[in-house]
Known about the structure:
Elements: E1 2-6, H1 16-23, E2 27-33, H2 35-38, H3 43-62, E3 67-71, H4 74-85, E4 89-93, H5 98-110, E5 115-118, H6 140-149, H7 190-203, H8 208-211, H9 224-228, H10 234-244, H11 246-268, H12 290-298, H13 304-316, H14 321-334, H15 339-349, H16 355-365, H17 381-388, H18 393-398, H19 416-432
Parallel strand pairs: 1-2, 1-4, 2-3, 4-5
The protein binds flavin-adenine dinucleotide.
Flavin-adenine dinucleotide (FAD) binds next to helix 9, helix 11, helix 14 and helix 16.
Amino acid sequence: xxxxxxxxxxxxxxxxxxxxxxxxxxxxxxxxxxxxxxxxxxxxxxxxxxxxxxxxxxxxxxxxxxxxxxxxxxxxxxxxxxxxxxxxxxxxxxxxxxxxxxxxxxxxxxxxxxxxxxxxxxxxxxxxxxxxxxxxxxxxxxxxxxxxxxxxxxxxxxxxxxxxxxxxxxxxxxxxxxxxxxxxxxxxxxxxxxxxxxxxxxxxxxxxxxxxxxxxxxxxxxxxxxxxxxxxxxxxxxxxxxxxxxxxxxxxxxxxxxxxxxxxxxxxxxxxxxxxxxxxxxxxxxxxxxxxxxxxxxxxxxxxxxxxxxxxxxxxxxxxxxxxxxxxxxxxxxxxxxxxxxxxxxxxxxxxxxxxxxxxxxxxxxxxxxxxxxxxxxxxxxxxxxxxxxxxxxxxxxxxxxxxxxxxxxxxxxxxxxxxxxxxxxxxxxxxxxxxxxx
Length: 439
Ligand SMILES: Cc1cc2nc3c(=O)[nH]c(=O)nc-3n(C[C@H](O)[C@H](O)[C@H](O)COP(=O)(O)OP(=O)(O)OC[C@H]3O[C@@H](n4cnc5c(N)ncnc54)[C@H](O)[C@@H]3O)c2cc1C
């Protein structure tokens, strides 16, 4: 019997590991509830994960298959299950965050190389798109040029039926925890994700390029929470969007290239998890002010666009990309809050929280050396709201006390102009030195 170890690929459609396992014989699925991950994340994110594991189990069961759920360290759990079920081979879709690589090395050692690895978390896997002379890209535009030129990937159909397997009598499938969430969760599982993709592609994709920057997020897909757990295949999403074609589709698929680029950066530069991508920016004079951090996190800075963003995120687990950039730039460039602390707290609030994309988003917004983002471009949260929420409806919804006006209200924690000048003064000094890349 084969074992399919699902991690960030909680789906049966376009799952190369599942397809290969079933091609070579009967298979059972396994999800390991890893305390190293689960104890370090928020209740809402655990709840979202569990709901999607439960949905995957149902997807298996509908096709006559079994999905096991076990709690523990993967390098201890897998050898146990392999021995209990006399598993021939383990099949898994590769992940490439620093912890995932450490974990997978340990599992490989424990299983003496009996693991077959497959691509499928990204459209183009981390490490695959390299410069003509070899070596990773650090700037998005040339990366994206090669990304678009890469050969199309083959997609895999979901299996119709799982061949029946006889589990030992009384062998427990293991239960999926049902943790409550402090925010309403979207419908879980791949069927819901596929329906959401279909609705987005047919209704909003054609105008995506015009509507994507709205602060209220009304022009975007909101599919990120499915991509993060691999409930939806990004490869299938690209294929569906390109069938529609046009400017909206090209722009949207370009965002999935950003997702791949984020994975590629973290794969090649794991130190970006802790330090500025360009080490010069570690020298910014960070201000670890608990009061300002708390005001930022809870959406009570007195700056309407920042407060609307953080309140929406706390209340829903989602925020548009434009609003993410506004709140992150405020935290890093204007408040000079230690970016690592903000990145971590922000990720815990996101249902789509993802190491690679969040680190890239924070480092890009903070001008810390990712891509060619210029440090001297400082978003003004007032003009951002005027441009991307012109009616003030988004501000009114989340910060009623602003009356929908973008100017600071009450007693703001920072004077925006003074904060901008403070940042630019030091940033200019740091920015004059030649750029560096951490390896
Ligand atoms: C500070 C900051 C933090 C972020 N943290 C995360 C995170 O933890 N997880 C996450 O998935 N995205 C993150 N992003 C990227 C982006 O904001 C979200 O992916 C996007 O807002 C999700 O909404 P959507 O699904 O409607 O996106 P759409 O606009 O519909 O885009 C489609 C898909 O493309 C990908 N994508 C879009 N924009 C980006 C981007 N800038 N970088 C990488 N991938 C992108 C996502 O998978 C998204 O679902 C962050 C961006 C910033 C500025």
